[in-house]
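This section describes the prediction task in plain terms. A model, or a person checking by hand, is given the sequence of a single protein chain and must write out its three-dimensional structure as a string of tokens. No templates, partner chains or ligands are provided. The sample shown here is typical of the held-out split.
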Amino acid sequence: MTANPPDTTTLRPRWAPLSIAAFVALVVCTNIAAITWARLVLSSPETLLALSSRNRYLALALGTDISGISYWLIGSLRIALAFAVCHLAGRAYGDRILAMFIKYLGMDQPTIDRLQSGFARADWALIPFFVGSNIVAAISGIQRTRPGRLAALVALGLIARLALIQWLANVFEEQLTDVINLLQKYSWWFVGGSVILVVLTNSRITRRS
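The expected answer:
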């Protein structure tokens, strides 16, 4: 008699659903930032970075009066939080979390396959370079990357990313100031366009799923 395969759902840690809930909350925050960024970057760049620390928001925030401490502290914590949540989801759900990314976030299988292949060969390079990638974070959980090694690689990636964006913001300070001045005049137009873009993007993902 062939034994039935074990029910893998019973092997998941008790905190597994919390990782999904945290991920959903982060997605909601990211969507809020995607809609309100043009206003928030002027009124409260710290809040914008707390909602989402995408590269463009980090750069725009440096064009305002945000302090260096706030830029580094909030930016690094927000990116690290998203990485930790996706890592834990990967540990808890394995490849199923990648299927969720494909279904609900509009990611494609070939991209995930390439990242998985690259991770197996050179995780030491992939994690720092893609420290802001939900997919890479989840793959690091699926592959059970050791916490100490993971923390060191994530820290390296955070320092490199934030330093590079800060350097670029200094190099292109004049252009960045022009963008901020443009937002001060037409921020509500940008908000309106952002609402349309977010709705269209989410509608496309919903149709795919």
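For orientation: The chain has one domain: 15-208.
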